Amino acid sequence: MPDFDIISVGGGLGGASVAKAMAERGARVLVTEREAKFKDRVRGEWLAPWGVAEARELGIYETLISDCGYHPTGWDTRLAGNSIGLRDLAATTKPAVHPMTFFHPRAQEALLEAAETARAEVRRGVRVSALQPGGPPRVTLEANGRSESLTARLVVGADGRGSMVRKWGGFDSKDDPDQQWLAGILIENTAAPMDYSVGCVQSLRFAYSANVSSGRSPGPLLLRGAQQRTRHDGREGRDALHRGVDQDWDEC
Ligand SMILES: Cc1cc2nc3c(=O)[nH]c(=O)nc-3n(C[C@H](O)[C@H](O)[C@H](O)COP(=O)(O)OP(=O)(O)OC[C@H]3O[C@@H](n4cnc5c(N)ncnc54)[C@H](O)[C@@H]3O)c2cc1C
Question: Model pTM?
Answer without folding.
Answer: 0.90
